Amino acid sequence: MTKPLKVVGIGNAMVDILSHIEDGFLTEHGIEKGIMTLIDRERAAVLYSHIGPSMEISGGSAANTIAGLASLGVATAYVGKVKDDQLGEIFAHDLRAQGAVYETPLAPADHAAETGRCTVMVSPDHERTMNTYLGVSEFLTAEDVDTDQMANTDWIYLEGYRFDGPDSVAAFAKAIDACKAAGGKVSVTLSDPFCVERHRDAFRELIRDHVDLLFCNEHEMRAMYETEDLSIALRIAAAEVETVACTVGADGAYIWQDGTEYHALATDVDIVDVTGAGDLFASGYLFGVITGRDPLTCGQMGCVAAGEIISHIGARPEADLSELFKQHNLL
Amino acid sequence: MTKPLKVVGIGNAMVDILSHIEDGFLTEHGIEKGIMTLIDRERAAVLYSHIGPSMEISGGSAANTIAGLASLGVATAYVGKVKDDQLGEIFAHDLRAQGAVYETPLAPADHAAETGRCTVMVSPDHERTMNTYLGVSEFLTAEDVDTDQMANTDWIYLEGYRFDGPDSVAAFAKAIDACKAAGGKVSVTLSDPFCVERHRDAFRELIRDHVDLLFCNEHEMRAMYETEDLSIALRIAAAEVETVACTVGADGAYIWQDGTEYHALATDVDIVDVTGAGDLFASGYLFGVITGRDPLTCGQMGCVAAGEIISHIGARPEADLSELFKQHNLL
């Protein structure tokens, strides 16, 4: 029986505040380059007062992945919490306008926290550094997970970042149980090397016991298995999970499946902003999976989608991804 | 005596919601292409529910002009009303982060209206159509005008759009009186042909009695003087005001000053979104004026700044305008 949904993503719902920074800005403000750091509302306000003119684009890692899939016409849904405020309205609009189902109850207008926002600082070398105020996205609980929805999807896609909230681990468990019980599959992204450091044991258990498809980049993979040798880390992961899809920046991605390694090449694009590269890789890869492609084609679709997102500012697709797949002879 | 400020702009403070639309969208929703139409909060909500994924960038015509000048290191201030809400915070941040003084009192959080927003719909031919919910920007009154600030600037820059609020006409009068009494000069933009239609007599009186520098485009100029012949309209305007700077799209701009016509050529750029072309033309032109350039050089600076803004989405400059002026041998 065909299920009504193909992929349901769960993660931190937020709006990105995108700004270009000079090289000295990060050291001046004590910010570590290239990673995601959690900050509180006060720190977010101080940081905002120091960054230059910005633009706001809906973000959130898993939400970006779902938006990418929705833009390809895939039946998707998203679970993540925003508040009944202007940024929450923007987030919900952009996801629904892309065609995804989004029904997570809003945090009420009198909630002490606001809709989450991610200050994305793009350096002259196009690297992105993220300081995230989680806001109400942190308050996602098992109650926000609709078991019927989880049973009605082929795949769920869990964002590692959401491990930063204890209640959300319960939400993940509920989603996994409902999805698996109905014959669905589970994909996870490790999200960030420091997120992996914070929750290595929980990730490890999740991967071994429940995950069918693991997304990560090389830094997260090394952090996960505590080795500098990527090939060792990949082999350990490949022994624990059916498929591992690990992006390696300009080198594209390595896919491990059934004991075989595949290497998908990155596309040749002028990089503007790497924000969302991993998220859109996952969109492309999952599109390949649900349309029955082989692992290498899935990886190439991931690379093409990632290439689109890094060619402009913001982590939501602007070009027609299916058109790009056709141009790369993938469709 | 040198004044601390060079240009103070007064206008509708708002955040732009930018979206790409297909060709049929405007006719389907009964929206007239290429112009600015005022809409109420309800209509804005309905429209928002129909447009695709968007991005938010601070806008407001005069605010864009001031942001452009501030990015060039010019001492500027802006007067326009936002609310104590998230979009208001974004607007204020982006202007101040660009270096402009912005001290207009916020409308309180319990005000019935919200911070103004402009739904900017960009068509495949790069034309932009704007539907504007004025929100609290409509409630700018004479009380919001600080006469000391108006006396302390070489120029004020008035946005024609703001004629759509009766209280703001009084605010304009107060600003003009304080500025002129202290030896300052007055520039105005006609903003939009339909805005001109709505307020032709008030504009005419303002131009004849107070304006030193008039900005407009060809459509506004024709509407202002009710003739299809641009050269006739320009000659009438030139007889009433010291300088007329009229943009003519891909043909650049015509400048009339002291009975002489100058023709500044448009720069050769790949057009992405024409939003803000007129606003940034005014930035460039005013930069020329306050740095003592001749009318043709002022016009060319206007064209270069306009060329920058139409080469990307959004009406706030992304590239370094002074660097572009150097590349065009204007600095």
Task: Describe the structure in your own words.
2 copies of one chain form a homodimer. In chain A, about 40% of the residues lie in helices and about 20% in strands. Chain A is of the alpha/beta class and about 325 residues long. Chain A has a single domain, classed as 3-Layer(aba) Sandwich (UDP-N-acetylmuramoyl-L-alanine:D-glutamate ligase). A 9-stranded mixed sheet of chain A has the order 6-5-1-9-10-11-12-13-14, sandwiched between helices. In chain A, strand 5, helix 4 and strand 6 form a beta-alpha-beta unit. In chain A, helix 3 packs across helix 11 and helix 9 packs across helix 10. The radius of gyration of chain A is 18 Å and the shape is globular. The interface between A and B is medium-sized, with 26 and 26 residues.
Largest sheet of chain A: 9 strands, mixed
Would you count the extended β strands of chain A for me? Answer: 14
The figure for the number of domains of chain A is 1
- Quaternary structure classification: homodimer
**Any idea what the shape of chain A is?**
globular
Helix and strand composition category of chain A: alpha/beta
What pair of chains forms the biggest interface? A-B, 26 and 26 residues
Average pLDDT, all residues of chain A: 96
Assigned CATH superfamily of chain A: Ribokinase
CATH level 1 class label of chain A? Alpha Beta
Radius of gyration of chain A in whole Å, from Cα? 18 Å
Query: What percent strand of chain A?
Result: 15-25%
> What share of residues of chain A is helical?
25-40%
